[in-house]
């Protein structure tokens, strides 16, 4: 008999955002775009990029901003999103994220020719994280 739900975990080093939540499906930001996971999905592991995780919990639509990490879909149907950071919609300061995004974007533009690869990657990752917060919070 086909499964009708999956168990979702969203885990960070600071503790879980969700653990064992029964959902019908979940959308996760992946390297090649949004990734949808439904019950009976094939098991695999893939990177997660900063973005917004979306799912329905009971009758409520949930959006959680996540940083970089990994998605693991187990053979048992459990979905684990392991990310460096995550914020629920209520935890997001959209105005603060917008101000920080303006600063990071300006820094990227100003240092376009003189920035080293590690600093560039750090700023691009922070830019993605701030954009995720804005999308999840609005």
CATH architecture of the largest domain: Sandwich
What best-fitting shape do the alpha-carbon axes yield? elongated
Task: Indicate the low-confidence ranges by residue numbers.
Answer: none
Tell me the number of structural domains: 2
Helix content: 25-40%
**CATH fold assignment of the largest domain:** ATP Synthase, domain 1
What's the number of helices? 2
Q: Report the CATH C-level class of the largest domain.
A: Mainly Beta
Beta-strand fraction estimate: 35-45%
Number of strands: 10
| Biggest sheet character | 5 strands, mixed
Tell me about this structure.
By secondary structure, this protein is an alpha+beta fold. Helices cover 28% and strands 43% of the residues. The strands form 2 sheets. A 5-stranded mixed sheet has the order 2-1-9-8-5, with no helix packed on it. A 5-stranded antiparallel sheet has the order 4-3-6-7-10, with helices on one face. Helix 1 (94-110) packs antiparallel against helix 2 (117-137). The termini are far apart.
Short description:
This protein is an alpha+beta fold and 138 residues long. It has helices at 94-110, 117-137, and strands at 6-12, 15-23, 26-30, 33-37, 44-48, 51-57, 60-66, 69-73, 78-83, 86-88. The protein has two helices and ten strands, in the order E-E-E-E-E-E-E-E-E-E-H-H.
Question: What's the SSE blueprint?
Answer:
Blueprint: E1 6-12, E2 15-23, E3 26-30, E4 33-37, E5 44-48, E6 51-57, E7 60-66, E8 69-73, E9 78-83, E10 86-88, H1 94-110, H2 117-137
Helix pairs in contact: 1-2
